[in-house]
Amino acid sequence: MERFVCVTCGAQFAEREDHPPSCPICTDQRQYVGLDGQRWTTLEALAADHTNAIRDEHELVGIGTEPSFAIGQRALLVPFGDSNVLWDCITLLDDATAEEVERRGGLAAIAISHPHYYTGMVEWAHRFDCPIHLHAADAEWVMRPDPAIEHWKGDILALGHGLTLIRGGGHFPGGTILHRAAGDGALLTGDIIQVIPDRSHVAFMWSYPNLVPLPVTEVRRMASLVEPFAFEAIYGAWWGTVIPRSGPDVVRRSAQRYERALRGELL
Fold it and tell me: To which H or E segment does residue 102 belong?
């Protein structure tokens, strides 16, 4: 029996004798199956030629796999009292990574923005004996069910210590954003509000790899949803994707530009 891992998205599946016929996360129109077809690996095989880098990412600490694996996102350690919340997740968890996270206070919980980053979340939850907070609207995309997963409902979940989960929607119905109140405040957005190369703007899409837009009404709703929260920084999903200041202005003008683009005013 083995817990297979999709090479394209990094999702780990429940234990079975043979690999699944396909990965539902990747056959969904928001993602894709690579040109060389559906491929599988295991955590043991992944650990044989990959490691994790742990380094500062603006005011937080990032954890990312090298060489890049699957979608290539990095997770973030967000201070939570004497411990941390792991924001988003990566597939690989080796002893060196676990020991370094423990040295920094361990994990009190895991929270994930959307199914493309569910990856190895159950491995992480078991290693640190902590819950996983996922929005109930995306429960169908859990490929390895486990009692550690807690599906929350509604639009807001206060975790404590100044951390709040916000149901942003957009990319997925349960797409989640993490607000951190400490300091000048920060939004950790994953792909729900994506940090793009031009750091003066962010992006909103239903599918990023397939370039499928969202309705204007949904983008307006998403932008208005974060307005009440105080924040300066916006953290995206990959190394270096951080907007350090003026976050509310960036979100506001990005939503306005999106609307102008769909009306054809930028042509």
Answer: helix 95-103
Q: In total, how many domains does the chain have? A: 1
Question: Closest Cα partner for 123 from 18, 47, 236?
Answer: 47
Q: Is residue 75 part of a domain?
A: yes
216 domain residue, yes or no: yes
Q: Does residue 267 lie in a domain region?
A: no
Closest C-alpha among 221, 233, 151 to residue 184: 233
Q: Indicate which CATH number applies to the domain containing 232.
A: 3.60.15.10
Q: Quick check: helix, strand or coil at residue 137?
A: helix
Instruction: Tell me whether the omega of the peptide bond preceding residue 67 falls within 30 degrees of 0, making it cis.
Output: yes
Q: State pLDDT tens for residues 83-118.
A: 999 999 999 999 999 999 999 999 999 999 999 999
Residues 28, 15 contacting (CB under 8 angstroms): no
pTM of the complete model = 0.97
What's the token pair of residue 65?
Answer: 């796999």
pLDDT digits (tens, 9 = 90+) for 27-61: 999 999 989 999 999 999 999 999 999 999 999 99
Domain holding 77, by residue range, is 5-262
How far is the C-alpha of 54 from the C-alpha of 94, rounded, in Å? 12
- Residue 119's closest CA among 142, 135, 147, 137? 142
| Pair of tokens at residue 196 | 């793009």
Residue 12 lies in a domain: yes
Tell how strand 5-6 and strand 60-66 pair up: unpaired
Task: Please name the residues in contact with 53: beta carbons below 8 A apart, sequence gap of 6 or more.
Answer: 62, 63, 64, 65, 66
